[in-house]
Design a protein that fits this description.
The chain is of the alpha/beta class and 302 residues long. It is built from ten helices and twelve strands. It has one domain: Class I glutamine amidotransferase (GATase) domain (Rossmann fold, 3-Layer(aba) Sandwich). Transfers an acetyl group from acetyl-CoA to L-homoserine, forming acetyl-L-homoserine.
């Protein structure tokens, strides 16, 4: 089933080339089902790439999805035009006039900062608090996952000796959990972060369930027992070349950075890396939308 997005959104052209089912507003209004309304708080600097990453996954399920994008009013992004934000994004104050079936909070390249030093931290806390009663389920990605663990459950992050970057094998803990339906016992996920969270702290918390982890990259996937918060510290939404683009960007900046692990064929950065995680990315988002959003959300919000 399709995703319903603004006609002029740049990601639309990318998705249409990949035969992702996109519906215009006129056709969407003729559908005799209630679409899911998903809000995406896009904190990533290259917003248009992140839009395409997430819309690709949201557009490959049997559900009709209306997508709205959210940006922070307390911080002005330097990597996207103001006109793009004004045309395709809203602020939390505008979003508060309605309720949403699902919310996605992306990562942000600010892991080494203390949460309280992030200039939009108070606004993000407001958004996460609002979501408790106005969103059926929230999916948090990378730094967004760490922010949720800290804000909701008091679990902080710690700095790693070096950046954890690459494609790592993760093991699932319980294949009967609905979010993991269809997953292999072991699966790959891209990881790109300078910080981590304690696997022991997650396992010890009475409100959290650890779903997948790696001996090399730590905890990847966890959720609250009420399923309202799902956290993933990796980037299943990434394209095959996204880690390579980040690596080349850091080298160009003169950053002392290691090559992503288990990524380039023969550890040769001139060779195109294969995508080893695409099927599980689609499974994760499909399962989230079906079991934790569609199956749980009321037909009419009261």
């Amino acid at each position: 089933m399709p995703i319903n997005i603004p006609y002029q959104l740049p990601a639309r052209e990318v998705l249409e080339r990949e035969n992702i089912f996109i519906m215009d507003a006129d056709r969407a209004r003729m559908q005799d089902i209630r679409p899911l309304n998903i809000l995406i708080l896009n904190l990533m600097p290259e917003k248009e790439k992140t839009e395409a990453h997430l819309l690709r996954l949201l557009g490959n399920t049997p559900l009709q999805v209306n997508v709205s994008f959210l940006y922070t009013a307390t911080y002005e992004s330097k990597n996207v035009s103001k006109s793009h934000l004004e045309q395709f994004y809203i602020t939390i104050e505008e979003a508060k006039s309605r309720r949403y079936d699902g919310l996605i909070i992306t990562g942000a390249p600010i892991e080494l900062m203390e949460f309280e030093n992030v200039n939009y931290w108070a606004e993000l806390q407001d958004i996460m608090n609002w979501a408790k009663t106005n969103v059926t389920s929230t999916l948090h990605i990378c730094w967004g996952a760490q922010a949720a663990l800290y804000h909701h459950y008091g679990i902080g992050k710690f700095e790693l000796p070096k950046k954890c970057s690459g494609v790592f094998k993760h093991s699932i803990t319980d294949p009967t959990i609905k979010l993991l339906r269809g997953f292999d016992d072991e699966f790959f996920s891209p990881v790109s972060r300078y910080t981590d969270v304690s696997i022991e702290a997650i396992e010890a918390h009475e409100d959290l369930i650890l779903l997948a982890s790696s001996p090399d990259a730590g905890p990847l996937l966890m959720m609250s027992k009420d399923a309202r918060n799902i956290m993933i510290t990796g980037h299943l939404e990434y394209d095959a070349t996204t880690l390579a683009e980040e690596y080349e960007r850091d080298l160009a900046k003169g950053v002392d950075i290691a090559m992503p692990e288990n990524y380039f064929p023969d550890d040769d950065p001139t060779k195109r890396p294969p995508n080893k995680w695409r099927s599980h990315a689609h499974l994760l988002y499909s399962n989230w939308l079906n079991y934790y959003v569609y199956q749980q959300t009321p037909y009419e919000w009261k």
